[in-house]
Amino acid sequence: MSKCTQSGLIDDYLLGRLDKSMIETFEEHYFNCPDCFKELKQRSEIISVIKEKGPTLFQNHKEPMSLRRPSFLDKIWSFFTPKQWVVTGISAALIVFLVVGIAPILKKPSSKFFVNDDIVRGESIKLISPVIDMNTVPSQLTWEKSGEDVEYKIYLYAAQPIWTATTKDSTISVPADIQLQMIPGQKYTWQVKAFSPEGVLISVSSQVQFRIIN
To answer: 100 and 26 in one domain?
Structure first.
């Protein structure tokens, strides 16, 4: 089976080495590519474990020698080298991922939603307001929360993007200067993307259009 040509960008994406345009392009790609989507999720889990536990694996243990006999845990610790502990940690992380991450996927397939008219994978963010034509300029945008410790990026478009913002809430106020740019009769589109604490795109809403009547 041939490997996706874009898979080489996964590590650069997770480690923040891509510029803004490449990030957006790759995010749209891996949501449409089942191989990259699966591989990115696996690598994200491993990198997260290494970032959290990795430094402690290389700390020098300079505790004074004790007269007591080494405990069972002491023997286990001294049995492995620091590098072997890293390999052991990664292996454990993979086992946890297989049990916790893949098992639920096998039980229940992910729901599908659309980005740029392509079917993508994951849970869709539900936009709450505005989703229909409005009598006045909206002062707030509201959507359904995707989980804890999630950062949302909001996009508002006319013919061109007119405003973007980020928040950890499920609602955001539209700045006064942006409201002044929104005129009756004009159609506007907005969209929300959700990112994990590691900065990985995990959910996307559909692009919802509304019009200001008066």
So the answer is: yes
Least confident of 31-40, 100-109, 124-133: 100-109
- H or E segment and range at residue 32: helix 20-32
My answer on whether 90 and 29 are in the same domain is yes
Mean of pLDDT over the chain:
75
- With residue 31 as reference, give the H or E element that holds it: helix 20-32
Cα separation values, 157 from 19, 91, 182, 192, Å: 22, 45, 10, 12
Residue 181 and residue 40: Cα distance in Å, rounded? 39
Predicted confidence (pLDDT) per residue in 52-95, tens digit: 666 665 555 555 555 556 555 555 555 555 555 555 566 666 55
Per-residue pLDDT of 138-164, as tens digits, reads 999 999 998 888 999 999 999 888 999
Distance of alpha carbon 128 from alpha carbon 205, whole angstroms: 11
Supply the CATH number for residue 142's domain: 2.60.40.10
Look up the domain containing 186 and give its range: 112-211
SS3 77: helix
Number of structural domains in the chain = 2
Round to whole Å and give the CA distance between 38 and 43.
9
**Any domain includes 27:** yes
Separation of alpha carbons 192 and 124, rounded Å: 10
Please state the separation of Cα 150 from the chain's center in Å. 8
Same domain membership, residue 177 and residue 88: no
